[in-house]
UniProtKB/TrEMBL annotation:
Signal peptide: none
One Pfam family it belongs to: Tma16
Protein name: Translation machinery-associated protein 16
Species annotation: Pochonia chlamydosporia 170
Gene3D superfamilies per UniProt: Translation machinery-associated protein 16-like
Family statement: Belongs to the TMA16 family.
Entries under InterPro entries matching the protein: Tma16 (IPR021346), Tma16_sf (IPR038356)
Amino acid sequence: MPSSLQKTRKHIAKKRNGEVNALHAKSRDSLRLHKAGVRDQRLEKLAAARSKKEQPIGMISAIPWKFSDGDWSINLVNPVDRVTFFQESLAEKDNQPLDLETVQSYIKTFIHQYDEEYDSLKKARRPGRPASAREDLLKIKIAALQKEYENGFVIPDLMSAENAKSLENWEGSWAYLTNIPWIKVSSAGQTRSAEFPSKGIN
């Protein structure tokens, strides 16, 4: 598919009888070319983000990967963040094993932690304006997490005393996570064992 920059160059070349190299730095055509180039770069970044989606807990590497655009960044793939969230949630219950209903409640809280920011960005956008890269990315992230929950949301097993104790003792290291039992919990309330997601989730 032709890029915005290619289309803009073609349009300007047609208007200027094939000449697009001798543009004044601040001319309208020069600004249009610059704007088209910036848009293409933004779309390429979003396309890369969409291809990785969230995986949602799976990672490209053990190190959190960040998608950056200007002065902001958002973790797309960071299983440590997820484990930290559920460790803190378990601590709220005095590190006692959780029942299925409570686990599902925490999963929903995790999925929708970005809703407020997403809604704020959506409301702040002027009518007719395209969504910002951040808004698009939050939308992708929320949708990816929701889809994972429908199929089976991967979390450390919090439903037995032994496993709850293992998670309580987690000190933040990557290697320790392989010793914690993992499960998938679906929105329909089904649970099944899962392997440590070292290679991502299908």
